[in-house]
Design goal:
Blueprint: H1 22-35, H2 43-65, H3 68-71, H4 83-88, H5 94-107, H6 123-148, H7 153-162, H8 177-196, H9 202-219, H10 228-233, H11 244-253, H12 264-269, H13 275-285, E1 298-304, H14 318-321, H15 335-348, E2 352-359, E3 362-372, H16 382-399, E4 403-406, H17 413-416, H18 420-425, E5 432-434, H19 437-447, E6 454-457, H20 463-474, E7 478-482, H21 486-495, E8 504-507, E9 518-521, H22 527-530, E10 538-541, E11 555-559, E12 561-563, E13 568-569, E14 582-584, H23 585-596, H24 611-620, E15 624-625
Parallel strand pairs: 1-3, 1-4, 4-5, 6-7, 6-9, 7-8, 9-10, 10-11
Antiparallel strand pairs: 2-3, 2-13, 12-14, 12-15
Helix pairs in contact: 1-2, 2-5, 2-9, 5-8, 6-8, 11-13, 19-20, 19-23, 19-24
């Protein structure tokens, strides 16, 4: 049997836990109807607004802390958050829900009569709250926190909180009901005291809640923002205000730094870990000993697909970025904001770091070119996009990156010849530029059953289509190549060995594949075109975006992808529509290139002879087909 106050009573409700706000909403609606306008003086309304504002405070800190293009040099701990921590902290806002319900109980009781006379501002209340925070909240939290670190309380109530390897602002809310009640006491006592002596105000409630949450979120942010020079100029500040480094030491080592916000109590009771100040300086300056992200060994250079998917980034909503991308209704209100950011990036942005993970001791990063999918098809944007890609390659070269893999449209043949443009322009590059399409072709080809003797191929004269056709014809598999260009078809056919050329057949109508149950799709198919496939057809795909599965009597494969090795660390977001731990094959191709230490560029046309070589290397290093 679980110890009391160790689990949340509404855990079984899942995402429907917010129905507990139903009575508060109903109270607001009743008062609205009675008054004929929004009841701005209603505590029920303010409790709901406070819940939203407080949640946004933690969300904004989370967003800032994970904007690696701003904060990667001032991180306290360099490790990344993994999916296990994200899932454990999924209901991080339970403490906000609890405190809102407690607030509703207090408002509905005669305990604090001062609540009935709503005052907007009273500076005397601030003075009372400050005195109570220093004189009661800080000592009470310190003593309770130390008690939670002793057996058996730690294992029952506090161990789960410390199981999070890397602190994040959302980690601040992850805990048991007992921990949340103690935190509620520390936060609520100053407010209660101010109202009991008749000096409470609405401004105090909002202000105190904001400052409390702001400092909590800052401490858990894993990013230093206060310059050590401020502490040097005013040394007593070290004992008044904690830092993310101070809290991080406590979270990892669990033997000191127990204070709420003021290290003075740790100093007074002999539990202060003085290394926090040296760590804070190192983290802020990005020096050795801090958690700054160093130079990556591998970079995957992506781009934004569209406005909706631009919100599927690790520094936006973690609950969305940690699951495969899908169009959620919750994103629609943010569409204008995302559109504004698109215009801003188009005007004045450069390539930026999006995410990272570690694989066998090496840092791997994903960078993004600040361009959206539709812009790659604007003739006027071609030069600017290539310029952004070129700058990213040169930056990677200066940083000592070993391999840079081009994603999706960044390696478009019409744009830069699959990366050939950059390699030819800069022949002395130390970084290896890779399009990763060799492994993409290998993944698609290894999905084709061994007993298949005929396939229908669209996008047949593209880079991938050419490689797939040449590989299959060598296996004596008949390839119906859908293309209107006889010139392109004949050029590819002449590349095949003489004895294999007969297996390449040009077709110009979809009707030609009405008896073929294996379709390899490299070009968008409409419902009308899909209807020519016989029942039982499987559609393999390398078209972006993937085709929509209109046929219920057929099956549809996903984009070519591979699962990263099991020893990957710090992976916290899904790559577009991929499952957790799965990346696009071109990303995986770059990883294999890096792990193998190959010294050649992989640009331009795919070397068909290397398809099996790359596939075997991927399996050797622990990458697995999905």
């Amino acid at each position: 049997m679980a110890p009391p106050l160790s689990s949340w009573p509404w855990a079984s409700l899942g995402q429907y836990k917010y129905v507990l706000f139903g009575p508060l909403v109903w109270k607001v609606v009743q008062e609205w109807r009675e008054q004929g306008s929004l009841p701005l003086g209603s505590w029920w309304l303010h409790l709901l607004v406070l819940f939203a504002v407080r949640g946004l405070t933690y969300q904004f800190w989370f967003t800032y802390g994970n904007m690696l293009f701003f904060t990667r040099r001032r991180r306290v701990v360099a490790d990344g958050v993994d999916f296990g921590q994200i899932d454990a902290e999924w209901d991080w806002d339970n403490f906000l829900l609890l405190q809102t319900l407690i607030g509703a109980t207090v408002v509905n009781s005669p305990l604090l009569p001062g609540l009935q006379q709503l005052c907007l501002w009273d500076p005397r209340g601030w003075a009372v709250a400050l005195l109570l925070h220093v004189g009661f909240s800080e000592p009470a939290f310190y003593l309770a926190h130390r008690a939670l670190h002793r057996a058996p309380l730690f294992a029952r109530y506090h161990a789960a909180h410390h199981s999070s390897g890397v602190t994040q602002p959302l980690t601040a809310g992850f805990g048991t009901p007992l921990e949340s009640l103690l935190l509620t006491l520390a936060m609520g006592a100053p407010l209660a005291g101010a109202f009991l002596v008749g000096h409470g105000s609405l401004g105090l409630v909002y202000g105190h809640a904001f400052v409390f949450d702001y400092l909590r979120a800052m401490g858990y942010s894993n990013v230093e923002i206060v310059s050590p020079r401020v502490f040097d100029a005013f040394p007593p500040l070290r004992y008044i205000l904690y830092t993310p480094s101070y809290l991080s030491l406590h979270h990892r080592e669990r033997r000191g730094n127990f204070c709420l916000f003021m290290p003075a109590l740790d100093a007074a009771f002999g539990t202060l870990d003085g290394r926090a100040w040296a760590l804070q300086r190192a983290a802020y300056d990005g020096a050795a000993g801090g958690g700054a992200l160093g130079a990556p060994g591998f970079v995957f250079l992506a781009h934004v697909v569209d406005i909706m998917s631009s919100m599927h980034v690790p520094f936006a909503l973690r609950s969305l970025s940690s699951t495969p991308f899908a169009n959620h209704f919750i994103l629609l209100p943010f569409w204008p904001v995302a559109f504004a950011f698109m215009l801003l990036m188009w005007c004045c942005s450069k390539t930026f770091v999006v995410s990272f993970y570690y694989l066998r001791g090496h840092l791997h990063q994903t960078w993004s070119v600040p361009r959206y999918g539709f812009q790659y098809f604007l003739p006027a944007a071609k030069k600017g996009i290539n310029y952004q890609i070129e700058l990213a390659i040169l930056r990677a070269d200066r940083m000592g990156v070993k391999v840079l893999s081009l994603a999706a449209l960044n390696k478009n043949e019409a744009l830069n010849g699959g990366g050939t443009l950059f390699v030819n322009k800069h022949p002395d590059l130390r970084v290896r530029v890779v399009h990763g399409n060799t492994l993409t072709a290998a993944v698609i080809l290894n999905e084709v059953p061994s007993n298949v003797r005929e396939v229908f191929l669209t996008g047949a004269t593209s880079k991938l289509g050419r490689a797939i056709a040449l590989y299959l014809c060598r296996k004596k598999i008949r390839v119906l190549m859908f293309t209107m260009s006889s010139e392109r078809f004949l050029k590819i056919q002449r590349e095949a060995p003489p004895e294999s050329q007969q297996y390449l057949v040009q077709v110009t109508k979809y009707q030609a594949a009405q008896n073929c149950k294996t379709w390899i799709v490299g070009k968008w198919l409409s419902p009308r075109e899909q209807r020519w496939a016989p029942a039982g057809t499987h559609f393999h795909q390398f078209v972006v975006p993937p085709i929509i599965g209109f046929r219920r009597d057929c099956t549809y494969g996903k984009l070519a992808a591979m699962r990263l090795p099991k020893d990957v660390r710090g992976l916290s977001s899904c790559e577009y529509t991929m499952e957790r731990g799965v990346v696009h094959a071109c990303h995986a191709g770059g990883v294999v290139h890096f792990l193998e230490g190959w010294d050649h560029h992989e640009v331009g046309a795919i070397d068909v002879d290397r398809i099996d070589v790359v596939w075997k290397a991927a399996l050797k290093h622990g990458l697995a087909p999905v």
